[in-house]
Amino acid sequence: MSKEFEKIERFISLFGPPPAPRGPGDDGCLLPVRGGHLCMTTDALVEGVHFSRKHFSLEEVGHKALATNLSDLAAMGAAPDFWLCALGLPPRLGGRQLEALARGMLPLAQRYKLKLSGGNLTASPVLSITLSLGGWAKKPLLRSGAKAGDKLYIVGVLGEASAGLWGMQRGLRVPKCFLEAQKRPRPWVEAALALAPYAHAAIDVSDGLLQDLGHLCRASGLGARLEGGALPISEALWRCFPKRALSFGLRGGEDYALLLAISPRGARHMEREWAASPWPLSCIGSFIDLPGIWLDGRRMGTRGFEH
Amino acid sequence: MSKEFEKIERFISLFGPPPAPRGPGDDGCLLPVRGGHLCMTTDALVEGVHFSRKHFSLEEVGHKALATNLSDLAAMGAAPDFWLCALGLPPRLGGRQLEALARGMLPLAQRYKLKLSGGNLTASPVLSITLSLGGWAKKPLLRSGAKAGDKLYIVGVLGEASAGLWGMQRGLRVPKCFLEAQKRPRPWVEAALALAPYAHAAIDVSDGLLQDLGHLCRASGLGARLEGGALPISEALWRCFPKRALSFGLRGGEDYALLLAISPRGARHMEREWAASPWPLSCIGSFIDLPGIWLDGRRMGTRGFEH
Question: CA-to-CA distance for A60 and A106, rounded, in angstroms?
Fold first, then answer.
């Protein structure tokens, strides 16, 4: 058995027995088909582009790779079900390090009972992790579904992940929660599934609020009004970076917050149902029948974060 | 709109309108669910590992990336349906080159009406193409389904792809068909779908006949007997490399031939039905209730080709 197969075996074994009816170890995976929509997503993390080994442990890289893909599924209103894992491994990265990567993925994979249904390993000059996730949506959320008058909700906080990156890259001491936000983003899967029935549209904030909200607006043929005072930018962020906090919040990337468009009527039902929401849920504005994004009456550009 | 989105737009536009109900441009893809099994596969090509830009045009790289994934689906008995395309692009690779890559994928994507249902672009030090394909199988073919006494069939030829690589790397003049086999492998999709009803098991030969047949044998708890004279090793290969032809045929990689285990009774039906088979179909041996692979009575190792 070659080293490659050993590495695959080792990797797979961490995720428990193969899913029914058949998973890793064959040329592809097979999954019984159910009602609803199959939802697939794919996303990659590349060393030197999305993370540096200087600042990230392999566990953190593994966590982040799976979390960002889960965030995409959540933004589609899809319940995660299975995943394919394609890895590019530099020669110096051995079996123990591959295991560290897998250990970083394991808690999320277990939490969401994700079936590792296939994958690929190849040599590569730098570490790269390309995941494809599949899930099932009864009522899928598209970017194009928002209506004028819908309220704009957000789950999660803004700006801390980019503040964490900023601090890390400059060797500044920043609150631990900023580093956590950068290294261990939380995918809002449960929130998305709970709120999907009330929502017309959704997107996850990966490239900055303005940029991703801009995508949602363009896809829906609308604009949006934002209330600056309602943005979930933490006091810690304001205190730590008084001059940059708003910019981090509006244009910083990798928040993996969830944006939802919900009708005023839906919002009333939703707020009643989720009066004691376990998630950091805020209403930050509304959709309008006018292009552009307006923050407290001022028109904003939608350029965001590039990795 | 950032350069990345422009590149994505440009890439997607080559493949025609997005699939129903929703494809690229959202966080993930949505597909209506049908009867049967969903079959997913993922495979990557990395510059410097699987190809060099010196020997491969970008069109050839694009073709090969899609062909190898289609070959995996074929080996599962699955009809290809959709794909996700994750690309790692070095800075020097511009829009025109990305288009060349896409043009290489286009003929196969069109031939099999593949829906480009999602993807990801990222910067990367070298070009990498990671595809995930999805298809539907009424009767999926696993590696583990072979029975003792089954005949071993192969669709395709052996050894020419590795002979092509050998020649290319050494600057030798080799027949054009060897280079074609290396650069433009043909996925046996139609053959696989036509023959699947007769087959117990299948695998595609990507790492050499002995290695991949070894996988099939181990998964099925069997061994196999091969008849040397029946192996589809071309006269051109024997003539060009009299001393190496057998080694290329048995251990050379990237043939993307299709191995099938078919019961003697199924084989009779199949041979009647496909008397005038449009594919290069050969019976090269049979499965036996004894571990190991035996070529004309001699036990063979199953070490194959590593990229």
Answer: 11
